[in-house]
Amino acid sequence: MTGTWINFLIDIVIIICLLVGTFFIFSTSIGILRFPDVYTRLHASTKAATLGVAGVMIGAFLFLYLENGIVSGKLILGIVFVLLTAPVSGHMISRAAHQSGVKPWSRGQLKDDFADALKSKNKN
Amino acid sequence: MAFQMILNIIIAIMWMFLSENYTFSSFISGYIIGILLLLAFQRFIPDNFYMIRVVKVIRLVLLFFKELLLSNIEIVKLVYKPKPSFEPGIFALPTELKSNWEITMLANLITLTPGTLSVAVSDDNSTIFIHAMDLGDVEESIQAIKDTFEKAIMEVTR
């Protein structure tokens, strides 16, 4: 009797991990569709996607460990590398966008210290 | 620091040989005994006890995960807001950090914090340009980044 209860609990935990992960990935894609420009879209894709992928991988890790007794080091390494590379790629894409002249979207007055700094440097 | 680490590993290997049990778990127990020995004899060993720095690194990693979670919740809130009311823009953050390693860490942490994305680093490594989702109070967010991340990184590297 107790064994089935524990199995039930394990299933619930795994399902929660997977659902949270997929929810964050889904929100990322909604954010990419809804936000106005490159930079705000990068906000969505670099942040929410990391937790989404991490959630799915933690769910898969727990499933493999608790159901089959396999400790999958690859999944842990996957989480670590997603966490390490997502901010770097976000940084590079935003920098490339800015250097190819994409203006940040703004409702009112645009505040862009980077463009100002580049301008004053070119003047000197 | 490197000297203490090597000493600790040597103690762990010696423990493995003394207990004639060549497994990973005996290496771990030997390593823990090495930590205790180093703690007991820290007066005679040059430099500060290196576990202090390890604890600081662990604290930085925990901070990283906490901010990641918070920023995810923040961005999901913004995604599902029926009428988005944010005011994006790019502001400059003057930083005191010097080496490439420290600045890389800081830029990565900024990207994973709520509402900020590092766009570029100036040529002289003195300023980081940050795209903010909501330019509420620039001074306040600069102060927050300086107080939490810069301090945590400085504690680890200096």
From TrEMBL, chain A:
Record flagged with keyword Transmembrane: yes
Signal peptide boundaries: none
Chief location of this protein within or outside the cell: membrane
Protein topology in the membrane: Multi-pass membrane protein
Keyword NADP: no
Record keywords, A-Z: Antiport, Membrane, Transmembrane, Transmembrane helix, Transport
One GO molecular-function entry: sodium:proton antiporter activity
Subcellular location: Membrane
Cited Pfam families: PhaG_MnhG_YufB
One Gene Ontology term, aspect cellular component: membrane
Bilayer-crossing regions: 12-36, 48-66, 72-93
Family: Belongs to the CPA3 antiporters (TC 2.A.63) subunit G family.
Protein name in UniProt: Monovalent cation/H(+) antiporter subunit G
Biological source species: Aquibacillus salsiterrae
Gene that this polypeptide is encoded by: mnhG
From TrEMBL, chain B:
Residue ranges of the TM segments: 28-45
Keywords from the named record: Antiport, Cell membrane, Membrane, Transmembrane, Transmembrane helix, Transport
InterPro entries assigned: Cation_antiport_E
Main location: membrane
Pfam families: MNHE
Compartment(s) where it occurs, according to its Swiss-Prot or TrEMBL record: Cell membrane
Recorded superkingdom: Bacteria
Molecular-function GO term, any one: antiporter activity
Membrane topology: Multi-pass membrane protein
GO cellular component, one term: plasma membrane
Family according to the record: Belongs to the CPA3 antiporters (TC 2.A.63) subunit E family.
Alphabetical list of NCBIfam families matching this protein: PRK12651.1-3
Protein name according to UniProt: Na+/H+ antiporter subunit E
Species, as recorded: Aquibacillus salsiterrae
